């Protein structure tokens, strides 16, 4: 694999102050590759390079920097330089940066922007985080339905330098309501004199500003789209979400899922690992470790209250860690499958009983197999002295095996039903899975284990 | 959000045998939307609809069906119908289907295909699973460097109906070595008489057929590409991977990561939840549940061997489940963060010591805080009778707190170092995380816990 190695060449050009070669070089490189290199320089030097570039290219490279680097560079600019740069940025990246700038500085910059940009920023910033509106861009190509293919291509040519994608053009009526879609491919294939309305797709796949950003990203992925149009409540086209932003949303959501599965929760943003300070990780991880440890006190109290049972049949202590682990493992398996299927839209809360029924079957099979193995293990291999007088190894084995079978069955039931119930209540299913579920299974497991021993063996 | 609701209209058209409306209808719908609807019909009826469509559209809709539905439909076709359909499919989907067809049937179909298609299938099928070669398509636009922009657009126009994407065209020399890239946007913006070689990007981002498919997919995502060219060892262009296939690869890898984190491993393909039989889930989940339960026997033996310590200080039983859970939770947190950072390319095995150092700091902070809280809890709130004569509650608290601090520190160390070591050895880091790590921490935790009590308290 090859990613462009620009560092040595760029460094030389900067040192030699060879502006024209520098300009050419940045023009023919991928903006992300230039941004990757610039990130290794101090903010002042980054601006030294960006300053000499043509405004659109400058804004594009700047948009590819990490947001914290963007902020550092922005700090060192004059009000007018910053206003100019912000004007040239793609609308979605611009509003993301703007939201991070301290409010007092925002108030300084806003008056320096043209009215159109100012209103665009205000509008995009007004959508709540997590909605399609908050991640869309307003840089799309819109066409009227009554122009010819030749005219459409000419319009796209004029608008292309400023647009995020020109490969899809959206057809809108006089009130800017979305009525169709033509791809650039369709346009170059069609006879030049044909009307746009005669070649456009009328059944456009779209989403609303208020839709969940993850649902919209999955739609873009499912339909293999380069971009998806976003409309407001009146079906007026207000923006698009592009395939690359959709991919970023899906990756971000996956990181969050994995974090919830591994006891790193809370309303924090997942940052770049190396740059995130130790203190930040401590703050978000410690409450989980300590909170879950606190809950395990309940399991401890249960053991404590069955102390007599435990001391009269010390072989029970042998299988205690296995009992706790098995509940958590089985529950996690089930929850992971169900949550994934929910996220990919393969099942919904409406399938509640079907999913539960399926998981109970899997749980029954695993539980019976594990129970059988444990019964054989205890009956055949219990060491001399482990089984007190008056009890048979086979009966003790049965009590232990029964507890394990019940625990596996219960773990599949809760592992499936808790995420489904959360989803039906519009909560995040991943929150009731992972360590929370494992802790719950520990507590229930201890209860089942000692109760089974006490009842079956009359202890 | 709105996905096209085609079912009622399509059903009516099929019942009325209204072929021409059906043809029109399918032409202006998204192929995936048509495929979604067709999936609800029996294989024979699916073919009844596809049969009347124009071959390219037929193949495109067919490619959007799930692979098991594709196979069912393929079963019901004559050799010639199937050969025709396979010829018209996109090369990457075609080879995926072909690999699923039983070998004896493959041998029947191959002679019915044109030589070009036959060789294309053989070539694409020859790349090992998991490589860029195995997921690329051979439907790309290639241009020579010495033609004009006008000629280039004309060529794209001619090739467009058969190409997966026409938005990037790859410039190759007379030996088909990759030397540049032009986007359709650049072409429509450039003066028509300019030469392709004068406007092309020369620093093309590319990958090799042997590169890992996940790395390539992440590259497409990082650089916001619509497609990435794939070259062989001689830099000859052999295929492209498009953004939508990259998104599918990333989602597939997400699913596999989550499965490894939740004890669902093994070389199985993640299928659609509702369609995957109970037996399949049993086969892949039972070995994990039972294997991990087996390993917990080691924890059991450790408790067994410290039986005297346990019975002389029964308060230890209270904190036993907490000890096991804390090791697993802390280890999982760390491993999840490190594995995610590895997957996103934020850290690599070269950062081994930096990552370990960072995690040890987080572990130390969490360990000290948890230890302090436990020491206070035991010293101040130990019930009468829990602390045997000759021992102070504060000393018992110290022994327990020390064990927990050490356990948290060890969990962050192993949670970070095992995935990094796996990555350095080119193994999958996710395999040494999740339940495997939790089980290891259970075993180590029991050792640390009872040793600490025995040594500090002289039991």
From TrEMBL, chains A, B:
Name the UniProt record assigns to this protein: Magnesium transporter MgtE
Summary of subunit composition and partner proteins: Homodimer.
GO molecular function: magnesium ion transmembrane transporter activity; metal ion binding
Transmembrane spans: 363-384, 396-418, 430-450
Keywords for this protein: CBS domain, Cell membrane, Magnesium, Membrane, Metal-binding, Transmembrane, Transmembrane helix, Transport
Major place of residence: membrane
Residue span(s) of domain CBS: 136-199, 200-256
UniProt membrane topology term: Multi-pass membrane protein
Signal peptide residue numbers: none
Location of the protein in the cell: Cell membrane; Membrane
Gene Ontology cellular-component annotations: plasma membrane
Function: Acts as a magnesium transporter.
DNA repair found in the keyword field: no
The family this protein is said to belong to: Belongs to the SLC41A transporter family.
PANTHER family: MAGNESIUM TRANSPORTER MGTE
């Amino acid at each position: 694999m090859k990613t462009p190695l620009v560092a040595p060449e760029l460094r030389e050009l900067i040192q030699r102050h060879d502006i024209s070669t520098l300009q050419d070089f940045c023009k023919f490189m991928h903006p992300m590759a230039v941004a990757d290199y610039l990130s290794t320089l101090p903010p002042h030097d980054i601006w030294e390079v960006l300053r000499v570039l043509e405004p659109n290219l400058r804004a594009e490279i700047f948009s590819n920097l990490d947001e914290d680097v963007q902020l550092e560079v922005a700090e060192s600019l004059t009000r007018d330089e910053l206003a100019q740069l912000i004007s040239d940025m793609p609308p979605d990246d611009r509003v993301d940066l703007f939201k991070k700038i301290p409010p007092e500085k925002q108030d300084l910059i806003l008056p320096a922007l043209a009215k159109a940009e100012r209103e665009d920023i205000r509008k995009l910033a007004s959508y709540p985080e997590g909605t399609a509106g908050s991640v869309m861009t307003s840089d799309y190509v819109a066409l009227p339905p009554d122009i010819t293919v030749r005219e459409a291509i000419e319009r796209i040519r004029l608008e292309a330098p400023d647009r995020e994608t020109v490969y899809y053009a959206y057809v809108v009526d006089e009130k800017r309501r979305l009525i169709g879609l033509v791809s650039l491919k369709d346009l170059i294939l069609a006879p030049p004199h044909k009307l746009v309305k005669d070649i456009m797709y009328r059944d456009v796949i779209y989403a609303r500003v208020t839709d969940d950003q993850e649902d919209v990203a999955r739609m873009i992925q499912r339909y293999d789209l380069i971009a998806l149009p976003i409309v407001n409540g009146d079906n007026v086209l207000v923006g698009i979400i592009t395939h690359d932003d959709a991919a970023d949303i899906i990756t971000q959501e996956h990181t969050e899922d994995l974090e919830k599965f591994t006891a790193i929760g809370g309303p924090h943003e997942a940052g770049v690992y190396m740059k995130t300070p130790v203190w930040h990780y401590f703050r978000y991880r410690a409450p989980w470790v300590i909170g879950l440890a606190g809950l395990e006190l309940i399991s401890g109290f249960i053991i404590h209250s069955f102390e007599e049972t435990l001391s009269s049949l010390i072989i029970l202590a042998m299988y205690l860690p296995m009992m706790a682990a098995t509940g958590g493992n089985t529950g996690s398996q089930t929850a992971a499958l169900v949550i994934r299927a929910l996220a990919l839209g393969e099942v919904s809360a409406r399938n509640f009983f079907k999913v539960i029924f399926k998981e109970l079957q899997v749980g029954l099979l695993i539980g019976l197999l594990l129970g059988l193995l444990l019964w054989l293990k205890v009956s055949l291999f219990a060491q001399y002295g482990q089984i007190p007088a008056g009890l048979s190894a086979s009966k003790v084995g049965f009590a232990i095996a029964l507890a394990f079978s019940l625990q596996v069955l219960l773990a599949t039931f809760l592992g499936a039903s808790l995420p489904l119930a959360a989803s039906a209540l519009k909560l995040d299913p991943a929150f009731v899975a992972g360590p929370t579920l494992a802790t719950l299974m520990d507590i229930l497991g201890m209860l089942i284990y000692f109760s089974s021993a006490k009842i079956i063996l009359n202890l």
